[in-house]
Amino acid sequence: MKLKFLFVIGFLIMSTSNAQLFKVSDQGSILTSTSLEHRCILDDQSKLVWEVKLNTKGLQNTQNTYTWFDGKIGVENGDYSHNCHWAKSCNTQAYVKAVNDVKLCKQANWRLPTEVELRALLVYGDNDLLINQKFFINTQLKSYWSSDQQSADIAIDVPFFYGGSKSADKSFDAYVRLVSDAN
Q: Residue 20 in contact with residue 13, Cβ under 8 Å?
């Protein structure tokens, strides 16, 4: 039993330490690990660039929530998007388009992450928030939409307060953390 426990602990440490994370400026430059001005995170292992949420008003505000919509199915603007102030634009498709339009961190191929990609950010430990908070600042203790769908009305989201994933009605609001394939 003790050996099994040590193996699990070793696996968790290795899986989190294998990620090579780098802070990235809005201009696409790699910053020092102590910088507080980063707008994105480059995961050098997966070759993905992740959006960072901000505490300031605007497009990347950490409080903004969105309904799940891909232009064909989902809810273009649900009643529950109370934190987003852009009315009809409070859905995942509109948010992806807006971030691509501003070319955040010099990337123009932002998208919703898959469930697997989003769950790869989970870091299990003693913290209430299961993500590397040194890099992914301003993460909320609620669910984040993935691009995966269970049905026409249901999408998969990943909560960073207990890990795993769950199903949610697309008309409900959830947070969004976009991802981009590194250029």
A: no
Contact 165, 156 (CB under 8 A): yes
Are 64 and 35 within 8 A, CB to CB?
no
Task: Note the pTM of the prediction, 2 decimals.
Answer: 0.83
Checking if the pLDDT of 63 tops 70, the result is yes
What single-letter amino acid sits at 97?
K
- The Cα–Cα gap between 66 and 49 comes to 21
pLDDT score of 12 more than 50: no
Spatial distance between the Cα atoms of 113 and 115, rounded to a whole number of angstroms: 6
The letter for the amino acid at 31 is L
What pLDDT, in 10s, does the model give residues 142-155?
A: 899 999 999 999 99
User: What is the spatial distance between Cα 169 and Cα 150, in angstroms, rounded to a whole number?
Assistant: 10
The CA distance from 35 to 15, in Å, is: 24
d(CA 23, CA 43): 9
Phi, psi dihedral angles at 165 (to 5 degrees):
-155, 165
| Rounded percentage of the chain residues whose pLDDT exceeds 70 | 80
Tell me the C-alpha distance between 133 and 122, whole Å.
11
Q: Alpha helix (H) ranges present in the chain?
A: 2-17, 92-102, 115-119
